[in-house]
Amino acid sequence: MHRRKFITQTAVSAAGLLSLQMPAWAKGWLPGAERYPLHNIPADKKLDAAWVKSLYQRGLPTAYLKTKNELKYIGMPAGGLHAGTVYLGGDGRLWLWSVYNDEREGIDPKTILWNDGSSERKIRNRDGASYVEPAIASNKRVLEQGFAIQVEVNGKKIIKELKEEDWDEIIFEATYPVANIRYISKDFPLEVTVKAGGIFIPLDADNSSLPASMYDISVRNRGSVPATVTVAGWLENGARKITAKEGEGSRRNAIVSGDKYSGVYSDFKYTAQPEKTKADDGSTCILYLGAGGKPDTNASPWPVTPAFFTTPGNDVATADVSEKLTGSVCAPVQTLAAGGSLQAKYALSWHFNQPFPKLEAKLKDTGKGYYYGTKFTNAAEAGKYIAANPQLWEQTLRWHQTFYDSTLPHWFLERTFLNIGTLATANTYRFGSGRFWGWEGVNACEGTCTHVWQYAQTMGRIFPSLERDCRERTDLGLAMEDNGGIIFRAEYESRPAIDGQAGSILRMYREHQMSADDGFLRRNWENTKKAVRFMLAQDKNGDGLTDTPMENTLDAVWEGEIAWIAGLCIAAAKAAQRMAEEMNDNDFAATCKTYVDKGCRNMDQLFNGEYFIHRPDAVQGRKKLGSYNTCHIDQVYGQSWAWQAGLGRLWDKEKTRSALRALWKYNFTPDVGPYIKTHTGGRPYAVEGEGGMIMNTNPHNESKPFGENVTWQLGYFHECMSGFEHQVASHMMAEGMTDEALVLTKAIHDRYHGAKRNPFNEIECSDHYARAMASYGTFISACGFEYHGPKGYIRFAPQLGKNADFKAPFTVAEGWGTYVRKKAGNLAIHTLILKYGSLQLNEISLGAAAGKTAIVKLGGAIVKASLERNEDGTRLVFPSSIRIRENETLHITIA
Question: What's this model's pTM, rounded to 2 decimal places?
Fold first, then answer.
């Protein structure tokens, strides 16, 4: 059964699905059958107050240690965006190497057995197999790869490879996009630190998409006498690694060198060129970045001995397909005085430019290969490009330093940001046409699904050009029907999904805000209007509450008026109103405003006194699946989205907060074990002993809470899916429920602790699930950040540390940097430091900042600005636009 394949409403199909997914207690659930299991989530979470308080502390980077057996599952995406999945392991070696266009589902395709408390079930990858039994690095080392350091002190040589077995302790700091790894041994007189990851520069999607991993190795002599040090790196020839057969040809390594690099390029030499290109046709390359490197096309012997560092290399080496052929390159030998240090930088690159055959039938873009294939013809070219542009790694490290140099808790920064690593896995592609395209999870559920991807907040803030491409090329282009409906999987479907429709409209507004001017909106306004009209037309009775049955992200068609979907459409209509006003389309703005006003008033009708519900259809009643009077995780999702897009408060504040408090009371549990043992049928995305927020609960213990006809989708209601949880956490943060937001986020962070599973792989339907990129929304809410590029408007109103000094990163249309707020007596000092690009401003909002006068300086020069007050607090308005450029600082002193 395809998890995301909606089965049309036939009894035969439904019966077939029930036999596969129906929880044991619900089989044969008909009038008079046994009651639904009792709600058993405690209202009192019994959380230690000191522990909750600790969540606010700055702390240190999350560190995973060899001595605690915490390295084996770690797999940080360490390549470029859309260039396949290459993992950086906990001990610093690369693993998985899913760059060969593998069509299998997930990073570790398998089916396991899992006991949910009532029975033993088969769990596929898309059902959580990788959550229960995560992939282990040592089982997935497709290519021989590594580094070694030789030190000679007082005539004695010591060699250590950068692998777990060789060191007393290895400490992996999990700070995506660059991990910091320290190697420690009593018998080794050097301090060794590695910074590793892919090139990653916010706003620069092209240079962040290079098919390569970077290693920045630092060595310091901690002894009292001089030490002679050599660093060596190696990489196995990866060409035709998976499919090569005897007689087809041989693997070939060749030296490549220039003024700024030297290394080994690896490809496959055919005996006779085949008619059809294989999925693993391509090349790999390892380069030392600098002068004086010594490459060897046939590195030996193994294991590493002193000869490895001195054996002269041939210009070319070949090997039969049954043999490994490994190239290496040594950094120049250096003698370090006591306290002296050296740095050795390497780039490991690959090039396998054959998109899946199974995508070719519907995706015409695959014929042009991958985007990186339009830039480079082989792996060596990619490596040489990095060598010729050292600023790319410098900018990556600058972003890394900028992002984590903050007053926000380290663990919080890590968890809210790391899911952007999904873009650096085989979950996403960028084709030669420039088109961005994604699965829901790795190789599962195709089509950049609107009702999943619309939860993701990270890409729109970090690489907005990719989101603009999705809106313009796909949602408002090839996926749009004549009536304005957006087919929710483009080429892979035939109908819209109502939540995806609303989400695409909201994202259209966000993408406009993350643009430098209004050109994007103007180009796409007419099609945006079509999409909005289609959405508004789904309100049959004209009360502002969508009531047309249509597909949603829970893979069903629900009847009636559903707070979750109605609220999301209200938020989308509000975004449309704002866009129409900017386009001076007054009639359409009025139409949208009327819808918003009605909907916001009538949301009260869906409030049951404690939370928002699903009002059944007047004719259908509760025959079909729905959330009805249960407590549903997305019930106020529309307001959550409104905060992300700077749309402000939509409907009643206290009712919204009451709904969030109900989710906390009825759906969050510090231990999901008791719940999933009684409410069976869900997939294991959280297991006994772990905290999480359940999707849908029945606090009033109704006997048929989800309707008369139980279907397989009911299993979703008993799960903890991190993308939905992140959405709620972001909303709680925006509403000032900071304790709850941090606890919920920390529950996810703890579920993905390195001792249990891969911290970088939040799982839903397969690995690196796109919805998990909702996590960045919680960071946005914590900063109280809003931005509108075409208007030149920016806002900071921190929710974490409201009355304390605050520091955090930000991204805008053309740049990124750091915002700092400090208090000095009666003065409030606000600083914007541009680290990259530029920022044009007409207005700055600073929340509820006190003071009557403001002095503004840019680069030491006074800037004219008026200090004004509105319902949002304090704002500074500039009589003419100002532009802050890279390495410039805007100082604001309010007294």
Answer: 0.96
